[in-house]
Design brief:
121 residues, alpha+beta, Arc Repressor Mutant, subunit A, 10% strand, elongated
Amino acid sequence: MPDDLHILQHSIGADKYGRRSRYSDRNHFVTGVGSVDHPICLQLVAKGLMTRTLGNEITGGDDLFRVTKEGYVYVRVHSPAPPPEPKLTRSQKRYREWLNADPGYSFAEWLGVPRAGRRYG
């Protein structure tokens, strides 16, 4: 079961808590006969948690596995809860706000800090 969960998480680009990046649209796992992961992926296919596409020249002959909707549910249900967020200082909160805002300019500019060598007023 831990190997099942790890392979499903890896296939969809999730961390060990099942969290995916908001930019992640990954959904594939390539492995072939003789690999430690191949029999696990075949078991996941049998459980309906993955699909299998036989290997071809694009995959170097290895099989391509994709996570099904049921596999996504399995990841969500079986992934452990993440640890609680640490207590952040005011400055740390402000920096995270800037990261989440993704405004297209530097943190200093976001704070309103004048650039060196530039005169204001």
